[in-house]
Amino acid sequence: xxxTPSNGVxxxxxxxxxxxxxxxxxxxxLVFLALCAGFFFLAFAALGTWQVYRLQWKLALIAxxxxxxxxxxxxxxxxxxxxxxxxxxxxxxxxxxxxxxxxSKTTAVQASTDLGSGSWLMTPLQAAxxxxxxxxxxxxxxxxxxxxxxxxxxxxxxxPVEVVGLLRVSEQGGGxxxxxxxxxxxxxxxxxxAIAAARGLGAVAPYFVDADKxxxxxxxxxxxxxxxxxGGLTVIAFHNSHLVYALTWYALALMMAAAxxxxxxxxxxxxxxxxx
Length: 276
Hints:
The protein is α+β, with helices and mostly antiparallel strands and 276 residues long. It folds into two domains: 84 residues; 126 residues, CATH 2.40.50. Helix content is 42%, strand content 19%. The chain contains seven helices and seven strands. Strands 2-4-5-7-6 form a five-stranded mixed beta barrel. A hairpin with a 2-residue loop joins strand 3 and strand 4. It is elongated. The two termini are 33 Å apart.
């Protein structure tokens, strides 16, 4: 014979179910969550869009520099144009200049290249009108630095040279570059003003020129037993991770949108259970 549960048992089950039902969130907490989700969504989306603009700027810069590097050489900026030289407008321009090297004023600056560790030979080039531009004649290993920096072939000091290379804006020490120690003749950055002051050159161009390989070879000045500088080793590389950054920010924005949708869905579920 079947039995039916008493009214007391049924009422107890209903009370237990009511107690187990999740409570709905308050209106204030829902407003707070909505504001937080909206704020972070807009912030992440804005950061992603900003990175897209940065990506477009970086690609335009790369294209501009590539055009400069492969263009025909133009005369290096003269003294009256020195105040107008800037990295944005002139960096990596292919320029040409003529004059005579002041070999005795050469400065060896620490370098690390595909050929190994060594030094750049920074030699002042004096034009016919007296303007002085520092020229990076090229890379040498560390052992013959003193010999190369102070010695030139017979008659080289008075021999005019023609140099073609890339215009580079003066480097500053500090940051990831060690600070120069002019007193100890230890140079880690190609700081034009500091080198000029240490060598007593007076006013010089606010830039230097990385001589290309052909110029270094044709104007090589070294004693017979010394290493000749290797030019044309300028590294042109731009860090470009803006697309990755943009995708990351957009992904975070979508995650915030998904979190907001989950809260709304969960709140509807809670209220449905409460009504049931």
